[in-house]
Every structure is written in C-alpha cells, then in structure tokens.
Amino acid sequence: MACGILVVSACGPGEGSESAWRGEAPKASANPAAEAGYLKPPLLSASQVLADGRIGLTGSAEPSVEVRLGAPGGEALTTLSNADGLWTVAVPPAAGVQLFGLSMSARDGRRVQAQGYLAILPDGRAAQLRSGASAQVIGVSSVEPRLLSVDFDRDGAASVAGVALPESGISLRVDRTAAGAGKTDRDGLFHLAIERPLATGDRRFEIAGERGEQTLLLSIRPAAALGAPFRAFKVGPHWRIDWMTPGGGVQSTLVLGRAA
Fold first, then answer.
1. pLDDT, tens digit, 9 for 90 and up, residues 10-25
2. Which of 66, 69, 171, 260 has the most CB within a 10 Å radius?
3. pTM as predicted
C-alpha cells in the first residue's frame, strides 16, 4: 500500500482467496512454514491510550528480535522484543485511523510478516485488517453476542467478525434472512462469511448466541475509487476503512463503535 510498502511487505500470498470469504480460517501466508522458517509471525494483543496521549501497543514475537510497524508513507516505528518475546511500542496520536504493516526480523536476516495490516483508531482501539475476511478487533471480550466488524467488497462478498460466549453456537441474519452460522473459538471470537452477496443499502444485521442477541442497522455502500493506499472516515459511531488488497482490489472494513 504505499503502494509497495504495505501491499507487498505486510501480506502473504493467498490472503485474498475465495476460501476466506467462505469462512475458512484466514492465514498469514499460503505456506508459512516454508516462507517464515517455522517462525510464527508477530502478533498484537492489546492497545490503549497512554497518559501522554500516545497509543500503547503490546504484542508477542520471537525473543530478542526487532519488531517493525511500517506506515504507507514509508515511516516506521521499531522496538525490540524482550527475552520472553514481549514487545511494546507507542504510536503518536492522530485525528484519524493509522495503518501499519507489522513484521519482525528473523535471525537469518529475513523479515517475517504478520497477516494483513494493523489499523490503529484515534480512541486507542486496534483492528487487524484481513484480506478476504473480516477484521479482528483486538482485546474485546463479551459473553453476549457482539458484532465488532463487517467487511465487504464491490461485488458484495462479505463477512462479519465478533465475540460471544467461548465455544458456543452463533448465527447471523441479514434483513431477517439466515446468512450464516458457526461457533466461537476458545477465546469467544467468531468469523462468519455471509452466504449470499450483500446488497447495497441500509442492511439489518442480527447476531444471536446462547447469551442473547444484537441487532444493528449498517450502511453498506461500494467504495469509491482509491487514490491512496487507504481511506478512513466516520459513519455515525463506526469507522469505515477502504483499503487496497494484495490482489489489487478494494475491500471495505467497518470497525463498529464501542456502543454497537
């Protein structure tokens, strides 16, 4: 995305495949063992606004390696993981969404890329954008079903992600019609591909689980042409991010507001 920094360096091949829209687990790379030498890519686990206004990020990586967050314009923030593989970095505050590619150095000099891109919101929240799948909002837990993100492209392929009671059943309806079903993982997270193309307009989303249900009315509109790696703006209480995928298409991510 800048356009070569984020698009090329932060996404593994195969991320934009149709399998992800069908609800299969998205992967950092088509063959991470071969490409990363069996190293797990770095992960972000928490984010928060610090006392000085900066946004503190905490995550995991290999022990004692350089961790890098690269922005579309070429700017980068770097830090070192400690002996336990933990890393922290403080991102300067901004009025809008900031996008970064996350990577770490391997001991042989290569860089191991994390899946997708990290979107850092002005309120301190963070989401991992995933090509062909819904964004994973970091550090949110709830036993009551909650939609956290909705992703779609210009052709109407779409999916949702959220949180509910761990290892429980979950179902989705769009405009009162069944649109997907599945199960949360042990952390309560779920990702559901919407079974049929999502029509343009104001759509009613209903997510239901063992501890209740949630209903949201969301605006679904195709993205306008992008003249930059990404564009982010508020839609009511939600942030919408239109961004270029590795395959050259445009994906739209709705990171839903805290009160959603």
1. 333 333 444 455 444 3
2. 69
3. 0.85
